[in-house]
Design brief:
Blueprint (H helix, E strand, L loop, with lengths): L3 H32 L3 E4 L5 E6 L6 E5 L2 E7 L1 E6 L2 E6 L2 E5 L3 E9 L6 E7 L2 H10 L2 H4 L9 E5 L2 H12 L7 H17 L4 H8 L4 H14 L7 H7 L4 H12 L3 H20 L3 H7 L5 H12 L3 H17 L1
Antiparallel strand pairs: 1-2, 2-9, 3-8, 4-7, 4-9, 5-6, 5-8, 7-10
InterPro entries: Homeodomain-like_sf, HTH_AraC, Tscrpt_reg_HTH_AraC_N
Protein name: AraC family transcriptional regulator N-terminal domain-containing protein
Pfam families: AraC_N, HTH_18
Length: 321
Amino acid sequence: MLTSTHQARRDDRSANQLQATVMRAELAALIDRFTGTDGAHATLIPRLTLARISNTQHPVHTVYEPAFCVLAQGSKRVLLGDEVYVYDSSHYLVVAQNLPVAGQVVDASPEAPYLSLRLFFDVKDIAALALDLQLGQAFPMRASQRGIFTGELSATLLDPLLRLVRLLDSPEDVPALAPLITREILYRLLKSPDGWRLVQMAMVDSHSQRIAQAINLLSQRFQEPLRVDDLANEVHMSVSSLHHHFKAVTAMSPLQFQKQLRLQEARRIMISEHVDAAAAGHRVGYESQSQFNREYSRFFGSPPVRDVKRLRELQLGRMSD
């Protein structure tokens, strides 16, 4: 037999779950209305992007920037190296570092499209908020963790998210209210069980913050030959420490990270600029055409020419629909 205290807690959980369900339904309706058509849609609110997709997808390779990702409807798989992160309308995804990933919408249909929002954030905003709240003292230094994680999407987080998206109906209120609500969302994330990951990313001299610097340097110079010694010196780490913490955050070595950036950029160049494989490989830093073809085939599953032809045919198919 349940005690009155246990019964009250159970009732509170049920009430919160019901409230979250109602909020998700409203959020889905808003995103559906503000998008209307498939694709990613920028909004009047800085850093807020809405998306709608009516069919499941093949994995899409891209580089995720730091962001808070929420699904109001549907589900998605995100692959980082060999690891898989799945989130849906009950769970959010946080990307704390710039990471090369493959994202795949796995639950979507014309009748029930995938509906999502992505709120990009700046590390400076997190650092300022963590400083105001003195969270650096609250969270002791911990070992580096993955720069991506999922969590439960509670009514506490859904509430400010809904208020933020509702602002799109009153553009005159966006300049004054959007920054306040965005700060509240970041606050809720920092106070979540995994919030310390964001705090440490922003803390000066933390391992996560130094790995963030290394990631930024690699992202800016991925066409150049990688000298790990030089990279370690620039972020004030030993080579062994850099390798250890870099892999802890990104699930790959600096060389593997650079390779993924190169291959993704080469693919983008071939598709968008109609450049051949030899020129694309050279532009992203490959000196050997055979090495480029070999690594491209291993990563994307088919040689450059065949892969790009398939992707262009998919694009034409979507346009004809």
